[in-house]
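Bench log, entry 3. Co-assembly request; chain sequences pasted below exactly as received.
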Amino acid sequence: MTGGGALADQVILATGGYDHTIRFWQAHSGICHRTVQHPDSQVNALEVTPDRQTVAVAGHQHIRMYDVASGNANPVVNYEGVSKNVTAVGFHEEGKWMFTGGEDCSARIWDLRARNLQCQRIFQVNAPVSCVLIHPNQGELIVGDQSGSIHFWDLRTDHNEQLVPEADASITSVSVDPEGSYLASVNNRGNCYVWTLSGPSSGAAAAACTQARPKTKIEAHRRYALRCRFSPDSTLLATTSADQTTRIWKTADFGLMTELKCANQRWVWDCAFSGDSQYIFTASSDNVARLWSVEGGDVKREYNGHQKAIVALAFSDGLA
Amino acid sequence: MAFFDNPAFIISHIQNSFVSGDDTGLCELVIVQDETSRRPVGINKSAWPWLAANAEEDDETELAHSYDITADSLGTRTRPRSDTAFKLDMLKKDKLIKGKVKTIQWKENVEMPSEEDLDALFKKKIVTKRKKDANTSLLTEQLDKFPSMQSNPFSEYAKFNGQTQVGIPTKKINIFLTMLPEGEREFPLSVCVTSNAKVSDLIGLTLWLYSCDNNAAFLSKSLECYTLNIAEDDGEPDRDFPPLDNRETISKFGFGTLALVEKVCPVETSKSLLVVKVAVGEGFSMFQVETLDIKMSQILELVLKRRRGMMNVDGPCYILEKLSEPGVTLDMDSTLESQGTFEFCLHREHRISSHQIEIDPVQQKGTVNKLLAKQKAVTYPMIIIASCDTIDDKTNAGRAMFRLTYKSAQNEFKFVDFESDRLTSRKIVQKVQQILDMRGSAVRTEFQSNKEKTKSKRSSMMFS
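Structure output for the full assembly:
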């Protein structure tokens, strides 16, 4: 399972939410070319696997994997045994393992190499986990929980560190830029905190846990912030909010570059940048996903079809 | 073939078979109509007493006189299945689906994985800085190729497309588009639609599919202009049958071929039609305007143009009022949009000037005003007006009457009475009297001296 090789000529855009379906879209035209039923559960998170063959859907008490290319209506694999909602899902970039986080206050590692699950790991915290992401160094997980703590879990040594930017402010999303230089988090008070990360640059220090130094605080939104994401070229940070806007900040000075808003949009739950950082997708509870130009701040495409709110988005760009 | 000598039963059975077997619903219409208009014939009550007894009951049931088929089952068209059978079916389906899906249960690891495993899986890598031009995007390339969003007016029906849906029942129908030019209408459009769609949704979906691939500028935007008809296999719509009811779900029908027919729209899409109605005197004028932004003054002009007879060179002023709010003059600069209604009333402005009095009586609805001799607009040059007085102040009705006395062409003093609401009539009386006082006129003095004379005459008569 190598990344980028197979199907690099395809752009994958998938959305999911409360209407029990997952829709796959032709990103440049706005046409929905496939709808898959996801019965009995809402969609909490969506992620395309590194080999771009499947999409992982985090739902209530399970994670289902759906085939991207085939017309198969059923999931190919169903991961169970977790209680309560699975709120986050992601993958090691070489597809060796999958990680999840959930309302059962844990982050888990699922072994994908073989079906006998030898390398399961679990990390317990004291509050429901709202977000989990993998550090670009592929050896650490960053876990955000509803008590306001951000945990660094070193998978090699099992060592962990904790950061609490704002006490009792539930963390809704965390993001690390692709170069491993910044960590951003947003919380339910609309505040965004940024740290600089000391990435290990030499072989010897590679084993050490990443250190985080506070960089800045942005009062990004007046209402809940729901998602934050760095752009692939590390120059931009996007934050989405219940105030119906998405704001794009420049990482050079963390000043505001563009505000993306339009009349009908309601809460913006998720966002994703295009491969060259020029466009951004947003998913909103007005049942519509949109494609925006980052520079111009205008809507380029709309993706209509969901019957209820869209709360999760997965995008994987192709290589031109 | 059944051997049965009860004609009523056989007839009833045959009728039922037609009704239940017919997809188009036409037999249902015909037979039910027929049945309600006449009684079942040939029941000999003495020979078949049980039949007579049942016949009363049957009159209550909706259509069928068959004893097998009840009104309920005719609606669902299948025999109601027992709960258990249904549940078993669902379980079987679930099992089938689950069989195809690999399920992996979370397994708790008792011990930590070995060092080799840890190294293999969780070793950190050095994160390198990205090269600037490494960020290429297929999306950007595709967006550049297709610069504008396809604005398909029927995109709201795209969600009924069964082709993109997996896991829910769909129906595949060939639809012939009869409104296309000669070369194109022979080829049907194969449409796969979700079973929960209505006929109107199917029409919308068909139009969307066509618009996606072809230039559909000639298609009417409104679905009301189209109907789906039963068609022959070659696409010819069968004119003997009525078009499919737009509100029916298509899962009811079993057709493989349908024809989309454009019907003549009786009224052009109502959204673009703006008709303004202006009541003028006894009749009214109706005319169409393009936009809601039109000013009231323009509407006034249009009305006056229509009714040329009302144009007066001296230009009595006309005013427009809302039909619902009589007495409130509308601002000529305001737009039609701000009025909130399309119905208006045209009046001549009551004008009193030192030159003349113009009065345009308002026609009272339903009442015949005996006091006003003629319902027409009149103009009195001030020079002949002798006096204006209030004569009757009907306090309870809030109305008042005033009299205008003038000298007619025959050199006689005549008067004319008007009724209006108290405020208006008082104002009129006041204004006229002011003007008369300011402008001394021969007529007035004559009238007044006449009054004096009659007064003094009377008083002198009294004393004598």
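The CA atoms of residues 30 and 433 of chain B lie 79 Å apart. Residues 442-463 of chain B form the longest helix (22 residues).
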